[in-house]
Design a protein that fits this description.
heterotrimer, A mainly alpha (about 130), B alpha+beta (about 650), C alpha/beta (about 180), A: about 130 residues, mainly alpha, Helicase, Ruva Protein, domain 3, 2 domains, 5 helices, about 55% helix, disordered C terminus, B: about 650 residues, alpha+beta, four-stranded antiparallel β-sheet, 19 helices, about 65% helix, globular
Chain lengths: ~130, ~650, ~180
């Protein structure tokens, strides 16, 4: 909690400076679309809940630039996401990776749907007239 | 002095709530008429006291009385008057007071509407409302007192977050709270009914309109939040599946299921137990939402200052109220008994299927929202669950819901003839698929998801059209026609069309919305959709409590200037925060959305320009849904004897 | 739903709710903003950076293999770094462990002045002006502190300012584990 607060203080100070700093803009729109897509999947670690595509925090800008650099070098989107995960952990991915600890997350909706189907089947069988209160 | 009065008023309100709960539930149990009469007085006392408290806090903010700690924390001498009002609920304590005020208001409205009702039921329902009031007032008084004093009195306040200094702040929280609190009514009716051991026709008839009104408010509140985030946050998005957004969306999903289930219970006496469960869960999720937003268990841009101590209080309240209600439900379920039976392929069957799908959706959203916390609690690591997950899970479910929206209203009750789909059905399905395919083939960039969304939207529209045509083919007098159109049936058609409009908006803007980052020097132009924007330069634009630079971008088409977009970057004086104010040219067919970036040297500035086709259909669809709900709520067609009489 | 013997169905909702409540209660004790490092137990990514100071040759991160060492990421523009600095100075003085600094996204003159004013607890200070090494380490804010074991593996990462309590409860016990 303190760490988060302290980081926020640091970010705030830097943001004040960012108001004045120039920001490089890339002209290649195909690359930019890819950058946007990848950046949209990555979490800004110093923000409350934002992607690095949306956030203007210095770390977000840095990571966006790194994503752009890697994509421009020819890496695939999956490789770039893996690169970030190696350094920041699963937390930085907004799409949870599929692994045993996330099986319940990904499969529960399907299970629930099947259970709902079963429930629907069971409760819509013709019954002898039920009691009407 | 006024603050102390407000504080006292809160204590009085708490006492009134305690009395209300005791008299209502106790009087109901002991059937003491005299006791039950006092219930009305207690409701009035609670309303008066909470109004006084709310008035006191409002006065403190409007007069910028910095000796009140809350005012010092969130207001500022330069804060414009409108936002002094909104600052009242722009913080944890004040927004809880707003919640309680809305609760007192709904309790009063309920007391008034039930004045001709059966005394025991009235007393019980109001007693349950009193119980809820106790919880929230105790929370306010003991953990979140808005009237604490600041000593020494600061010379000026810290000011309001610039993101909140916006007209959206006037409407979004109050409308949302109207929705959340409205769900308490169905909850209270259901608990009262369970206590009595019967959930009868009167119960079903009563909860329908109250739920519809609450649902309509919730729909508008959520849509407004989305609309506001869209123009305020500057990145062009309108929904992020943030925990706080989900906290409002889950009760909405359950309320949608509830209003359909209540319609069944009302019309046919079936699914009373399922409707009762939904009524309990609707408010349970609203309470859970309160917990999520204010306890700090989840990280969100929306979250109030988090405090695990407060979180514990809310959790205890949640466990007592919801746990108690669910236990009561389980205990009393056998006594309530089954409703009328029906076959799967019937209107009830499909409506039941719909409510199940909506509950699966709500459960999935809940799972995704809480999963990071669950894993962390089990020591299995930290992860994030964001839009990619929710979209992957939610979209298919919603497509299914939309598919079932069509046959439902067209089938007979209880048991519909199962025949191979008639030429009419097949024709409609084929037409829907054809329309979607035409769009997908003609406009490049469509995905399977786009195609599916457009096909389902077309299917829904065709379904409504068929239902309307069927109705028109019956000979009916004009007066009846008019009554139906502005009543429940017309409301249903409007709401269902709203769903289609919403789906089209989402599909189109997600697929064909486009943005570009570019830098412009004064005089340079860029093309966006069917217009061009020319950068005319930067001017200084000081505001009441901020300093801003403003870009001027005339929008040109065929040489004519249609309008001028003026995005800004603001530096707020009170807390040094910078913010970007986007400029949007709106129309029914597309938004042109421009955000001003930083200076990149040589007079040039960075801009991010978005083209968003049909984005306004998203919120238009929501408005249609809400309006449809209200039309259905005020339809008196089925009201016979005074509400609630046995 | 038929009358008759008690059915389990309606109790299901209560059961699920009970489980949920337990989970929420546990959740209250957690901090959703804390991000654990994926490097824990793994070797520190190796890098070579120039060191702070005039005419210093680039220094490799392999330099300190064979001993425990602490890597502290800091910057002169970072307020909490100033707050934790006395703790680091004391740690350096106690000579219990080697302290190495990573000057993150900073200007060397400013960094040097900052150290001159406050004291220099670091054996060496790497200069990471672009933050590229910080990126490899998973740095997302300053200050951050890593404890690295003699085999070059990251054993602990602390985000935020270090405190004397942290030294006592986390750093020293880790150093002890390697002895005997």
């Amino acid at each position: 909690m303190r760490g988060a607060w302290l980081n926020a203080v640091v970010v705030r100070t830097a943001l004040g400076l960012a108001f004045l700093l120039p920001m490089p803009v890339v002209a290649d729109s195909v690359l930019e679309d890819k950058v946007q897509r990848v950046a949209g999947e990555l979490r800004c670690l110093v923000c409350q809940n934002d992607t690095i595509a949306a956030s203007q925090a210095p770390l977000a800008v840095d990571l966006r630039n790194q994503v752009r650099r890697l994509l421009a070098q020819g890496q695939s989107e999956a490789q770039v996401l893996e690169y970030m995960t190696q350094r920041y952990g699963d937390f930085v991915r907004y799409r949870p990776p599929l692994k045993p600890s996330t099986w319940p997350l990904w499969f529960m909706p399907v299970v629930l749907l099947l259970l709902a189907g079963l429930g629907w089947w069971r409760f819509t069988r013709a019954r002898p007239t039920g009691a009407q209160s | 002095m006024i603050a102390e009065l407000g504080h006292l008023a809160l204590a009085v309100a708490l006492a009134a709530s305690v009395a209300l709960a005791l008299l209502g539930l106790g009087g109901g149990a002991w059937q003491q008429a005299a006791v039950m009469r006092q219930v009305s007085n207690m409701v009035a006392l609670q309303m008066a006291a909470v109004t006084l408290a709310f008035g006191a806090l409002t006065w403190a903010f409007v007069a910028t009385d910095f000796s009140v700690a809350l005012v010092a924390g969130y207001a500022h001498s330069a804060l414009p008057m409108t936002y002094r009002f909104t600052a009242v609920w722009g913080n944890h304590e004040g927004s809880m007071l707003l919640w309680v005020w809305v609760l007192a208001g709904w309790t009063s409205a309920l007391a008034w509407r039930m004045r001709g009702a059966h005394a025991v039921q009235r007393a019980r329902v109001l007693g349950v409302m009193g119980l809820i009031g106790i919880g929230f007032l105790a929370f306010l008084l003991f953990t979140s007192n808005p009237f604490l004093r600041a000593w020494p009195v600061p010379a000026d306040g810290q000011g309001m977050n610039p993101l909140l200094q916006d007209p959206g702040m006037i409407w979004h929280p109050p409308l949302l709270y109207m929705g959340y609190v409205g769900l308490v009514v169905a909850f209270a009716y259901t608990v009262a009914g369970l206590l009595q051991g019967r959930l009868d026709a009167a119960w079903a008839r009563a909860i329908r309109p109250w739920t519809l009104v609450a649902w309509a408010f919730l729909t508008v509140g959520i849509a407004l939040g989305s609309f506001w985030a869209y123009y305020e946050l500057g990145w062009g998005g309108w929904w992020f599946w943030d925990p706080v957004e989900n906290a409002s969306f889950m009760p909405w999903l359950v309320a949608t299921a509830l209003l359909h289930s209540a319609a069944m219970a009302d019309a046919r006496g079936s699914f009373r137990l399922w409707t009762a469960l939904l009524a309990l869960l609707g408010f349970a999720l609203a309470l859970l939402g309160t917990f999520i937003v204010r306890s700090g268990v989840l990280s969100s841009v929306h979250a109030f200052a988090s405090d695990p101590g407060r979180g514990l209080f809310i959790l205890a309240f949640l466990v007592l109220v919801v746990g108690g209600a669910l236990a009561l439900y389980a205990w009393r379920a056998p006594a309530v008994g089954a409703g009328a039976s029906f076959q799967g392929w019937s209107r009830e069957g499909l409506l039941f299927g719909q409510t199940l799908l909506l509950m699966v959706a709500a459960a999935s959203v809940l799972l995704g929202t809480l999963y990071p916390m669950l894993l962390d609690a089990l020591g299995l690591g930290k992860l994030s669950v964001g839009p990619p997950y929710f979209e992957a899970v939610f979209a298919p479910l919603m497509l299914l819901v939309m598919a079932l929206m069509v046959p439902g209203p067209l089938l007979a009750w209880r048991r519909a003839a199962w025949a191979w789909p008639s030429r009419g059905w097949l024709g409609a399905a084929a037409l829907a698929l054809a329309l979607a395919s035409a769009v997908a083939w003609w406009v490049p960039g469509a995905s399977w998801a786009t195609w599916a969304g457009l096909a389902m939207a077309a299917w829904v529209v065709l379904g409504v059209a068929r239902h309307v045509l069927q109705w028109l083919s019956q000979p009916l007098p004009r007066a009846v026609r008019w009554r139906t159109l502005r009543g429940a049936k017309g409301g249903m058609w409007l709401a269902h069309l709203g769903v289609a409009v919403f789906a089209i908006g989402v599909a189109v803007v997600s697929t064909w919305g486009h943005e570009q980052d570019l830098r412009l020097r004064p005089g340079e132009e860029m093309a966006v959709g069917d217009v061009r924007l020319r950068f005319d330069g930067i001017t200084m634009a000081p505001g009441p409590n901020y300093f801003a630079i403003r870009a001027s971008l005339p929008m040109l088409q065929n040489g004519q200037t249609l309008t001028t977009l003026q995005p800004e970057r603001r530096l707020y004086l009170a807390n040094g925060q910078t913010m970007t104010e986007v400029a949007i040219d709106r129309s029914l067919w597309r938004d042109v959305y421009v955000a001003l970036g930083e200076s990149v040297g040589n007079d040039a500035f960075a801009f991010r320009v978005h083209h968003k086709p049909l984005v306004n259909w998203i919120w238009l669809g929501c408005l249609m849904m809400a309006l449809g709900g209200l039309m259905a709520a005020v339809d008196r067609r089925r009201v016979g004897p005074a509400e609630g009489t046995a | 739903m038929t009358q008759g013997p008690k059915r389990l169905g309606p109790w299901l909702a209560l059961a699920v709710f009970a489980l949920l409540s337990v989970a929420l209660a546990l959740g209250l004790k957690l901090n959703p903003r804390e991000v654990p490092s994926p490097l824990l137990g793994k070797p520190l990514p190796s890098f070579t950076l120039p060191a702070l100071g005039a005419a210093s040759a680039p220094v490799s991160s392999q330099q300190w293999r064979g001993q425990w060492w602490v890597l502290n990421v800091w910057a002169s523009w970072c307020t909490p770094c100033a707050v934790e600095h006395p703790v680091l100075l004391q740690l350096a003085q106690s000579q219990r462990v080697t302290l190495v600094g990573l000057n993150y996204k900073d200007a060397s003159p400013a960094a040097q002045t900052w150290l001159a004013q406050r004291g220099n607890p670091y054996q060496t200070v790497w200069v990471d002006t672009q933050g590229s090494v910080g990126l490899d380490l998973g740095v997302y804010g300053v200050p951050e502190t890593y404890i690295i074991d003699p085999q070059g593996r990251v054993r602990h990462k602390h985000t935020g300012a270090v405190t004397p309590q942290w030294v006592q409860s986390t750093l020293l016990p880790l150093l002890e584990t390697s002895r005997g």
